[in-house]
Specification:
heterodimer, A: 551 residues, alpha+beta, Sulfite Reductase Hemoprotein, domain 2, Sulfite Reductase Hemoprotein, domain 1, 6-stranded mixed β-sheet, 5-stranded antiparallel β-sheet, 21 strands, B: 95 residues
Chain lengths: 551, 95
Amino acid sequence: MYVYDELDRGLVNERVEEFRDQVNRRISGELTEEQFRPLRLMNGLYLQLHAYMLRVAVPYGVLSSTQMRKLARIARVYDRGYGHFTTRQNIQFNWPKLEETPDILAELSEVEMHAIQTSGNCIRNTTADQFAGAAVDELEDPRIWCEIIRQWSTFHPEFTFLPRKFKIAVTGAVSDRAAIKVHDIGIVLVQGADGEVGFEIWAGGGLGRTPMIAKKIRDFLPAADLLSYLEAMLRVYNRFGRRDNKYKARIKILVHEIGADAYRDAVEAEWADIRDGALALPEQEISRIREAFTPPAFEVLDAASTAFEARKFEDRGFARWVASNVRRHKVAGYAIANISLKPAGGIPGDATAEQMDAVADYADRWSFGEVRVAHEQNLVLPHVRQDDLYDLWLALGSVELDAPNIGTLGDIIACPGMDYCSLATARSIPVAQQISERFADLERLHDIGSISLNISGCINACGHHHVGNIGILGVDKKGEEFYQVTLGGQADENAAIGKIIGPGFASDAIVDAIETIIETYLSVRQDGESFIGTLNRLGQTPFKEALYGTA
Amino acid sequence: MALEIITANRLGDGLVIFLTTDGWSARIGDAVVSESKDDTAALLARAEADAGLVVGPYGITVERQADGSLRPVKYREALRTRGPSVRTDLGYQAA
């Protein structure tokens, strides 16, 4: 993990004291709300439906057990005993007091955490593959480059007043677990002609009101040029992005309106001027950051663990959890363990302080003290010995974190929706709860297989409904909550925006509608064919017929 | 005209509050009710003058129930008086 140096510590501590002073001046009346609001947002503090909400940054989704324990403490001492993990790998607390937020930030700084740039028109948390450093298929650990981007983008004076928020994601593998094609800038690690690591650069992806898949801007960017190129990309956006209309201010609108070629030409022209300047990355600097991500001291183990295989044979519940939640690790004898924060009938992405403390303990015991946050709102222990998986599973069961449903219909992404968020037009969590309860039977869940169902409580799409195989959007229809369904979204390297299937459904009909869609799939699928495979083969017709009785 | 009251969030802790005849209250039952557009405008002006205490005041439409209590017409505003529907142990509803 990256560890703060003196400079990092100084910046964060100064920021805490600056914010403390700003809060005091707001409370004393010296600052108006209009003056204070942008400052509050730059420190991740929102005002929501019932209370303030603090969004704490989890850089590229990586947490140490120490940091996780601090988050548990914040939840317990300053909040209502829980936190919510988000679709950008961050964590949100829903009940902080303004008066106490400087103390919260001071405590976070003790463990090298903060809430800087988790809101506002600036560069936000750069997200990554939650399996970084462990995945079998990665070219290189993407976190190295995320950390470099983080340092460049934090307090970047030129990009503190962008037309709108800016989100960057990085994948180290062709198999994209970071949804890079629906980010403002998406980066894929690729191999150059001489075997060196470089980047494929994408721009102009995004969800929200106008979902768009990113366009490829560059096939290969040498590693040393990463920051100068990103600088050029941000400069062109900052200069030409629209500021007249909040709903047309993202870079995706710019790329769409002028075209990818024109955007690329503008970027390359700017880049030509700055390429060899101060942002050129010396190999020494890249190495320094790379060292921060040196793999832990893995033991030399056999590829297969007989104890593990025996346990799977003996305990069907364990075998089922392994089938859905465990992934192959690049190091022989190890595994990646996914922890589902989606118990049937539960609130997707929420974890209690007790659960957070437990996960910190399990990380220490079985994963070299490291935890990851997935953008699907789950947690990951990235480096678990196969021999230890059974004990881990039993332990997870003791704190209700053993739901065997990763990547299934039970693994629902849901935004907080109208239960918490002042932007929402409908509630999303109750729909997620009802769907996961309807499909709680594990045999049925596993039979349905790999599928993504994402729910957003408003058109801002924080629940990523556009890229769910099944997407649900909650809207307001004459004062009643109403739900539109889209099919065919994909968040991975085959990124696609879902298409609306027909008229929406009232809250007492939406769960039946989903069940109809699933039953239709089961009745027409070929052997081994996933939901998205069936949908792509047959189109929406059979589903429309089942739902509406017409083609 | 429909009945209106003024709501906002308290500056210090962000909780939901309602404008009363002489201040603010966490209880919707204490809210001062407007029956005219002019009244609402005046109440809003008073609320905005309290910028040191509250954030983002705005008017909401309410109905008087059979038992005399006030209930917001919009579901979103009703949620604000209670708390999250999915955590009935949190918010005012838990008191």
